[in-house]
Amino acid sequence: MQIKPRQHLLDIWQAMARHAFDDGKLVGGESDGLSSVADAERLLCLLYPATEVPAFRLDQPDTTERDVLRALERLGTRLEIPANLISALNQFMRTHTGPDDSPTFAGGHYFRPSGPDVELTHEQEQLGVVDSYSMSITLCLATLGFLKVYEGTTTRREVRRAVEELREATNARLTAAMISLLRSFTVNVFDAESEQGRRLIQVIGQGGQSDRQVLQQFSRRLRPLRATIIESLSRGIQVDEGIRDESQLFECGWAWGVVHGAPRVVDLNVQVHGQPDGIADRLPYVYFTVVALDGIQDLFSERTLTLGLLDADQQKLAEALRLRWELSQQYWSAVARFGTERWPLEDLPWQTTGLRLESEYFSLTVAAILVHDLVRRKATDDDLTRTVAIMERLADRGRITSRMTREDPTIRLHNPGVTMPLAGSERSGNLLLWRMTDFSAQLLKRSIQLAELSRTIGAQDRLLRLAEQTFEHLWERRIEDEDGAGLWDNVRAVYPDARGVGRRLSWSITERVTECLVAARNLYKQQPIRSAELAELARELLSEATHLFGKEQLEGATSPDGSRARTMRSIENRLDHARGLIDDRPATAFALALPVLRELDTLAQARGAAAQEV
Predict the structure, then answer these.
(1) What number of other Cβ atoms are within 10 A of residue 537's Cβ?
(2) Cβ proximity of 17 and 73 under 8 Å
(3) For residues 581 and 595, what is the distance between their CA atoms, to the nearest angstrom?
(4) Residue 480 phi, psi (nearest 5)
(5) Rounded distance, CA 590 to CA 421, Å?
(6) From CA 56, how far away is CA 48, in angstroms rounded?
(7) Which one of 43, 130, 360, 501 has the fewest CB atoms closer than 10 angstroms to its CB?
(8) Whole-angstrom Cα distance, residue 546 to residue 524?
(9) What digits encode the pLDDT tens for the residues 21-50?
(10) Distances in whole angstroms, Cα of residue 224 to Cα of each of 205, 242, 289, 372, 390
């Protein structure tokens, strides 16, 4: 199934508007209002394409396109849609604000109890989580960009008041989310002889070396990163002094929430309220690290920088987050590609060291960090080729490109999903769990990102085929009737033999599919990969065609309005056009040169036949 970003985004918008809006007003639902994560995901299904895809812009009503208006008719007319969207965003900001007027980042019903007889308390549901911090950064930046453009198009007093209210709340939420992400970053130092140390050595020791050799190699390869972390101690990173000892192992990344004992951020121009004490253990999760990386990179996007969306305090926080963003990418990329032969990431499934879990989902999350790093440092062809193979194997093992067998346990990867205990959450009462059900959507997102990065025709072709297969798998999983029609997720649509699996409206998967379609649009906006071989062939064809065209012009002059003159002008224009395409689109230049050569040959043959008759 070919990915058609424009049409598929319009389908999602129409379904989302039908489900979430009534007469232009945002309405609640079974899963709405209970989790800041779910509520942010729902709004991003609309706002993310509206701020990232020019054809879907809603901030300049006079330019809104007709098919967009048809898809969003439940939100109102061309002039009503932006104002109604601002009302919905203000509703979100007020809903997720605490009694002290500080933003809240409640995980809500996304938290799971540790047992069937255990119920979550209200205090546990209100705990902040990295998913909410990261999603809020993306939502707030999209909102600020939307307001910056829209405010210049309206003079209505009540709308301008709503714009000011929303801008103030959005800036407060953005700052709070950035601070919370800073306080959730951690570096975990541990001894090589500890249980966690032995597991890490087992994971990265792929070459049959002794534990001592692996430890020495780890120390040598991670020495520059260790030095950067030590140097960063004065820049707010909290880490045990044991990091200075090269015989110690370490991990870095994001815990599930604010770390226990994390200091408050105070060195800002304004006082920031609502910095609750953290309870999360100093244990980096690869899943939450990926989630954090996705949000942080939006702080440095071209749109954020061009529109100047960050104030002075936010720029300072962004630089601090960028340091942690780079540290995490470098660490997990090095661990994923550790050694000189087989990568640890190629040994599926990935085993976590801190929680003793293993799953293809964790392999995918480590691969996602590797994709981030490959984009950052412009990867080699070998790195890309090996990563593509990993993605293809994950698609097969996740039964996306292969059929589900009888009583196949793989169904649990999609429903109920992979469950993780949140270390330290027992400080709130009972242990909390977190469940990930978006394996297919994450695979699609990373495949598209890799395809956008790849400059090798073979690798990109494999990635595009994988992306199309994964997208078809996901598209079939849309809910077809009842509540949430046109949205996700209906696992039984692709796995009919799955037992105990029902339809469940998931804003998480719906939002990630929306992200994937925006990413696919960006991929298709790129110039196609240039083939050096075709470029050389095209030059040879055009060289011959140009020569023959010059020869044809030596023949007797004709009337400027005659058919021969029109043909010659057409040939000249096509040759000029083809020559202009050689550097960027050599295959197109090649294709344009062939009919020109045939036409010149036809002219020569006709002239030869006429000469024989004379």
Answers:
(1) 16
(2) yes
(3) 16
(4) -100, -20
(5) 58
(6) 10
(7) 501
(8) 32
(9) 998 899 875 544 479 999 999 999 999 999
(10) 20, 16, 21, 19, 28
